Amino acid sequence: MKSRLKLLGLVAVPALLAAAVPAAYASPSPQPSATHAAITGDVLKGLTQHATRTGEVAAGKRISVAISLTPRGGKALDTFVAEVSDPHSASYGHYLTKAQFAARFGRTDAEIKQVKDYLRAQGLTVGKVHSGNLLVDASGTAAQLEKAFGTKLSTWRDATSGRSFYANDSAPTLPSAIASIVSDVAGLNNRLHLHRQAPSTVHPHNGPGGGYTPAQLKGGYNVSGTYTGSGQKIALLEFDGFQQSNITTYDNNYGLGSPTPTVQKVDGGSGALGDGQVEVELDIEVLHAIAPKANVTVFEGPNSDAGEVDTYQAIVDSGIPTTSISWGAAESARTTSGINAVDAVFKAGAAQGLGFYAASGDSGSDDAGDGGTSVDYPASDPYVTGVGGTRLTVTSSNAFSKEVAWSGGGGGKSSVFKIPSWQTSVQKSAGGGFRQVPDVSAHANPTPGVSIYSQGSWSSVGGTSAAAPEWAAFAALYNQQAKAAGKANLGFANPALYSAAGTGFHDITSGSNGAYSATTGWDFTTGWGSYNAATLANKLLG
């Protein structure tokens, strides 16, 4: 599942907000004064059309928020990332350390103090200031948040799902001096829960519970036995937990000898074990199948706007070079400010040499499910490698035989991001000048899927949730090879992958995902295609 945060439009607010909050929804929302600016993009779109107001949030309810700050230097960060990720640039691979990033693009200590002082003056408890000086955590009661951000929090019921949630009735406001550096306040609503890219189970076929074994996946994608991911680290973004006993059973069955995954809980973790457990165990076991000696860290956070951005930031704080993401939501289900807040974290990661691989979704070309064409976020983010789905066929000796596009694989054009410079070489008229998804793809078809052990039994699982860790595993193998050759990590991979211009890929030319069909070269169903590990690694190493 992928979670999306919206970029909250910030409104300049009086230094001391004394105006009373309207008692009833029918009353007008607080309006910014002439000295304040409204923050657009921080209110749920179509709220009254898709939900019914049921009341007010209890004044004493405690809520956590994450305040995102804009990087210093305007477009300087974009320019730096473009250079450090371009294999044709003299700056390629010269990534920043956390301290260097903070000094160059983070807000100053004086600006951070100004934000913290304001929050505390409103009665909020200030939490962690994350590395990079671009994200500040805080918490308080609903009444304190309403006062601090000049808005009203109401309770709602979704007309389709019946799920209850809370949301701010109007855009938040802040003192003008603070509003000028704030880009989002995540946590003022909890409507959106990231969904996992729902794995599908099928009857036994190859492995103990059906699906491809580690030998079949590695054979199909020409993974050399020389590289196992030894000494490399991979992060997983998760909103649920797992049972180590299941991972141990999987590893022992295939004789993988993988290191025990490490768990890092963010903001208290994801809570009690839920139905997302199969997602987490799928991700871990696919990584073990292809890069068995890599060290996996599972970042478990709350499934909320604030939890999402904090969990991504925790991954960047860790410095782990490769991350696999199998949770998300349609772009249309997110706020603009929330998307921008997460995008800023990805961009910061790219500057520090970190690569993110995200499942493109399992609903084909209609990720939003509204009968149109739409894509999933964060796979559509320009600083993320979006991974689509295929159906891989291997020979009896586990070699690549053929591959076609999987009908469920997400793909299409973004409605948020313009096409990045590294993608213009494959720009399609159907993209309309917007970011095109996916970038690459891998096996995701559920018949057969991949063999996993979860919840005490073997099964075969499919979906782009399997494809994303298949690519993250490749990145770890590449980084091991690059280290041996004295070269930099792959980092944000897209500029290098597009520079390879199809070399080292299995070009998939048949199949469709609904509105789009696979063709020669890059396409909206499979991107460049899946990897031939040995050939692609050699191409990227130059």
List strands and helices in order, with pairings:
Blueprint: E1 6-7, E2 11-12, H1 47-50, E3 51-56, E4 62-69, H2 76-84, H3 98-105, H4 109-121, E5 125-129, E6 135-141, H5 142-149, E7 153-158, E8 164-168, E9 173-174, H6 176-179, E10 182-186, E11 195-196, E12 200-202, H7 214-220, E13 233-238, H8 244-254, E14 262-265, H9 277-290, E15 295-300, H10 305-318, E16 322-325, E17 327-330, H11 336-351, E18 355-359, E19 376-377, E20 385-394, E21 400-405, E22 412-418, E23 434-437, E24 440-443, E25 450-454, E26 457-462, H12 464-484, H13 494-499, E27 505-506, E28 530-531, H14 533-541
Parallel strand pairs: 2-9, 13-15, 13-16, 14-15, 16-18, 18-20, 20-24
Antiparallel strand pairs: 3-7, 4-6, 4-10, 5-6, 7-8, 11-17, 12-26, 17-19, 20-21, 22-23, 25-26, 27-28
Shape verdict? globular
Tell me the structural class.
alpha/beta
Please tell me the overall pLDDT.
Answer: 91
Hey, roughly how much beta strand do the residues contain? 15-25%
Low-pLDDT residue spans? 1-34
Whole-Å distance between the termini?
35 Å
- Strand tally: 28
